[in-house]
Structures are given as C-alpha cells and as structure tokens.
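Why do we care about 3D structure at all? Because function follows from shape, and shape follows, mostly, from sequence. That is the central idea of this module. The next example makes it concrete: a single protein chain, its amino acid sequence, and then its structure expressed as tokens.
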Amino acid sequence: MLGAIIGDIVGSRFEGSNHKGKDFELFDEECRATDDSVMTLAIAKAIMETEKIMNSEDDGMNDYYSLLEKMTVRCMQEIGRKYPYVGYGWWFSYWIFSDDPKPYNSFGNGAAMRISPVGHIAITESDVIKLSEVVTAVTHNHKEGIKGAEAVAMAIYMVRHGYTKEEIRQRIERDYYPLDFTIEGIKDTYLFDASCQNTVPQAIVAFLESVSFEDAIRNAVSIGGDSDTIAAITGSIAEAYYTVPEDLKEKALTYLDDELYSIYDEWVRFMDEKKEEGKCR
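And the structure:
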C-alpha cells in the first residue's frame, strides 16, 4: 500500500503535464497526496473494520463479502468526505457525497489505483478475484473497471508468492491485457487517459521493466498522462517486489496528515499480525 501512496505523491505534480523523462526530483513542495492515496487508505480501513467484526471460522464467506461491501462504501464515503479537494472525478465525487450511493458503470483507473490492500490480504487466487470485485463494484461495476483492479491485485499477489516477472507478464497477457510494448516505445505518443484499459497495462510494464522501486516510479512518470495514478499502480506492485527504501518511506509519510497516517500505521500493525498468524482472515 505504501508503494501506491509514494507513486501518487511523486506523480501528483506531473498529472496531465506529459512529463517524458526519468530525470526529476522525486519529492518537492508541489507534491501532495491525492484521491489515489485517500481511497487506497479507505480500502485498507474497510478491510480492517470487516476483520474486526467478522470471525471467519464462525460465519459464512458470503457474510464476510457482504459486510466488506458495506464497509467499503462506508469507509470510502466517511474518509472521502473529509478530503473533498484531492482530485476526485465528477461521478466519483457525486458518489462520495450521495445519501444513496450506487455504482455508476465506470471503467476509470480509480478502480486500480486503490486496490493494493487486496493484493496483500488475499491468500488464494480466487480470493484475489472475489475481493477485487467486492471492493471495486461499489463504484466501478463495468467489467473493464473490475478487470483493471483484479489485474493489479493479481500482480501483487503473484509477487508475494514468489512468481517471477516473466511469469507475471505471461499471466497478465493471458488473462487481462496485451503487454506488447515498451515504456520507451510509447513515450512519444502516449497521452492522458483515465481508463483502466489504457493505464493499467502501462503501469504494469513500468514495473516489469524496472530495476528498483525508485526506477519503477520513474518509469511510470516518464510516459506522461495520468501520472499520479499510473505511478500509484506501478508503485503498489513494485513495493511488493522490491520493498520501499527507508528514506523514501520516511519522506512520503510526511505528506500524510495525522488522520491518514493513523490509518496507514494501523494497516502496518494489522498486516504484521496477519503475517504472524500465517493467514489473512
């Protein structure tokens, strides 16, 4: 999850400017945490709140998924309303403040930028698929929105389970998107696009071509377009593969206010407990 937050913060000052290079300062005073970070933390909070309520040994999985769906809506709205000016799209902003929030058939990349907690909590591939749909379809219920979120969560899951980059590439190409391009090859023609179809594959290739966590973020920014979201998606996968350097972690967390930081800190402790238990639920 931290990788998504870092990618969002680094990419925030380049969104829509079509920056086409890798030589830039990662952090400066123009950087900020946008809706990508806020909603990623909201999904993490929804998972944690669901875990607090449910005991999976005593309750059916359908009940778990139903509760997670309700908690996803609640946490996204409650947290999102506290940060009304972080860059939500029009339809999502309407959903955040609606008294009767309904999915609106979106295939926007907001589905994929917030999904990383699922990639870390899932214990099976079927878990990845189901959890991705549950937390995504509350807003982005278009098949391409769900596919984009699932592809990112699956890549994170595969990294966590020791799959190689080549195996991840093959799986994404088989089940989700063609990846028959390079970052260098698309730089001259790639423009802003907020759909999953035209940002998730690019973000995944930015990770696959990288040699370090920082290099992955620089790859993502270097193609231009929706830089904060592309870098958030790339960063979410790169974190799982490389881990985040301590200096980047410390700097990025200074961009979170106390409330967002508290959710992040709670998530870190939550995941540490899950690792000790050897299970996600």
